[in-house]
Design goal:
Length: about 350
């Protein structure tokens, strides 16, 4: 008969220095035990748990007690890929895809997403499918080199970037890439949006800019991955945006909504003809404290309050004063007039 494991049992195992990965394979986990295991996995930079937003009843199974790898037997990978746990993650990707499409953050077959489901394996979106018509059966399983392990459709051509992010940032379990127009406009201009204007943006996003490289190339992936230590929302120059989350794909998607709304708002604010109010250093510090408590990265932790709102290249509403019209020039000064007269006389004398 299977053993029933509660959250209390897991706490007891941990208290005795035991390893929860050694739980019996057929153990039945109570909902609170599943939640606790999910939380432990997240803290250890583990793999995706079922959506935290859903009730335990809606998430029919958790991740396998022992994480699989790309070297696991094919039958085990197939069992994982076809499990209720994986189906739940695939449905989450489809739901986020539909939201991206409805908000016009993707165009054609653009945009792609991935969720880590083991040590070096991830479920990802296929290539050449609109995010507006994505179905769970379209999803692919890949290893961290981008080799396709399972799935009938071919994996996205931009998967390397997602995998390089996950390799470089062990906390990243979900990644989302698309082309939202306002944020992409900043990416085209090559500037990070100015900061210290809206709280949601400051708490959820930390925005960096990666230089342009051909989409899908290892160089592109490396330039983005190198920023994931400090940034969770990366503007890809002349291309789009990619976000990551240590919690779930929905949070990576939220970052996309938040950065896009922020870029749209500050562009409009810049047209109002008034100077923009920004947070004070202490106000910004409070927001960063909240951000840190949520486990989100940000390059500004540890800075002095007076250094927090140093926005760089561009500020909305700031225009150069129009220079005062110059005094109308009535004539040349006497010295210049004399010179002109001398030259004119010389020309005229030569014509005679
Ligand atoms: Zn793209």
């Amino acid at each position: 008969m299977s053993t029933v494991i509660s959250a209390k049992d897991i706490e007891n195992i941990l208290a005795k220095g035991g390893d929860v990965k050694s739980l019996p394979a057929d153990a039945i986990l109570t909902p609170s035990a599943k939640d606790l295991l999910g939380e432990l996995n997240r803290r250890q930079g583990g793999y995706a748990t079922a959506a935290p937003a859903k009730s335990p009843a809606a998430a029919p199974s958790g991740p396998p007690a022992k994480p699989l790898t790309s070297k696991s037997p094919k039958a085990e990978l197939e069992a994982l890929f076809n499990s209720p746990y994986a189906l739940d993650l695939k449905e989450q990707i489809c739901e986020m895809g539909h939201r991206l499409w409805k908000r016009a953050y993707v165009d054609g077959n653009g945009g792609n997403m991935a969720i880590r489901v083991g040590e070096d394996i991830a479920i990802c979106t296929p290539t050449l499918v609109s995010k507006g018509s994505l179905k769970p059966a379209d999803m692919c399983l890949v290893d961290f080199e981008g080799n396709q392990l399972l799935g009938t459709k071919k994996r996205t051509s931009e998967i390397l970037m997602h995998l390089q992010m996950m390799k470089r940032q062990p906390k990243a379990i979900a990644t989302c890439h698309c082309h939202p127009p306002y944020a992409t406009a900043f990416a085209v201009a090559g500037i990070a949006p100015p900061t210290c204007m809206l709280p949601e943006y400051e708490v959820f996003c930390a925005v960096g800019v990666a230089p342009y490289r051909t989409p899908g190339s290892p160089e592109m992936g490396k330039l983005v991955a190198d920023l994931t230590d400090q940034y969770n929302t990366i503007l890809m120059a002349n291309h789009g945006v990619v976000t990551w989350s240590h919690n779930c794909i929905e949070e990576a998607y939220w970052r996309m909504e938040i950065v896009e709304a922020y870029c749209r708002t500050i562009v409009v604010a810049g047209q109002l003809g008034k100077p923009i109010n920004t947070f004070t250093g202490p106000q910004m510090k409070e927001l960063l404290n909240i951000k840190q408590s949520l486990g989100f990265v940000d390059p500004r932790y540890g800075l002095k309050e007076c250094e927090l709102c140093d926005s760089g290249d561009w500020r909305p509403g700031v225009t150069c004063p129009t220079p005062a019209p110059a005094e109308p020039t009535v004539g040349l000064d006497p010295e210049a007039e004399a010179a002109v007269k001398a030259i004119t006389d010389q020309i005229l004398s030569q014509l005679k």
